[in-house]
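for the writeup, i need someone to sanity check this before i put it in the appendix. the sequnce is what the collaborator sent (i think, or maybe the updated version? ugh). structure was predicted straight from it, no edits. if anything looks off just tell me and ill rerun, i have time this weekend
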Amino acid sequence: MRGVVFTGDSKLEIKEFPDPTPGPGQVVVKMRSSGLCGSDLRPYRSSAEQLGARTQIISGHEPCGEVMELGQDVTNVKVGDRIMVHHYSGCQKCEFCRTGWTQLCQSSYQKVYGSGAHGGNADYELIESYMCVPLHEGVSFEEGAAIACGTGTAYQALRRLDVSGRDVLAVFGQGPVGLSGTFLGAHMGARVIAVDPVPERRKLAEESGAWKSIDPNAVNPVEAIYEMTGGRGADATLDATGIGEVRANAIRSTRIWGRACLVGEGGTMNLEPSPDIIHRQLNLFGSWTFSTVILGELANWIVERDIPLDSIITQRFTLDKAKEAYELFNGGTTGKVVINWD
């Protein structure tokens, strides 16, 4: 089978790997769509030395496809089932694994697929059967791939923030996660302010339901949000950038008694706890992806409300064009980008 590996310094190769064979409790998934995630760009841009063993590991952690082969004792899925992959494995004994939060498992069994084990940018993927989440018939494979990380991450963050039609929601960063936050937040009824310096991404945000958009290179985004809200500030804010200054701006633009959530990975942040958080009675959340239960919930939520999730998918490639896909995605102007089969 073919698989995409990052080789360092914004380069990749499509290599040949043996077709996987499932062991007990495992399944082989025939890939139908695999999404590109902003968190892919850090390893993609890293040097070969920084990547180390990852230069031999198939990339991609937003897989969606069909069950092709079952290992011994697999009973929760059958051949031909349409599934999304929850891209983590764990001990299946701890409180986190038992509730579908496998990424929080503290044991040596915990792996992130696409970095610690072969991921979804391949013709087939070998996974543990409990990583399979049923894909509703009303959701396409490429929509399932989006849900399997970026859009799912945004949805869980909005759940943590308890976003509703009562809220003004400010979303900092309009890459795939932030754009999903804007899109879903608008469908939840919030008035969404989208913040991003890239004109193409602000335009996408506006087309996806944003009430207002802000270019943080043209104006102070904190001051702009207070002006747009009559001096009150945003009821809820979401940072999807992982950039220290942007994170701080998201928190400082949140109103007294408001809620702020950080989902952008990496980096650092400098704040003054008393004036920025304590004296404004803020609720500050960190949110890392989602559980298997939330993954399935989002797919059903999309169908029940007839939400056109495919509208945030802006580019589609085939596996043989993975190089072009990542080069375009690395430019930072796209919405969701996916690799499709068939």
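Residues 2-149+290-340 form a domain with the Quinone Oxidoreductase; Chain A, domain 1 fold (CATH 3.90.180.10). The longest strand covers residues 26-35.
thx in advance!!
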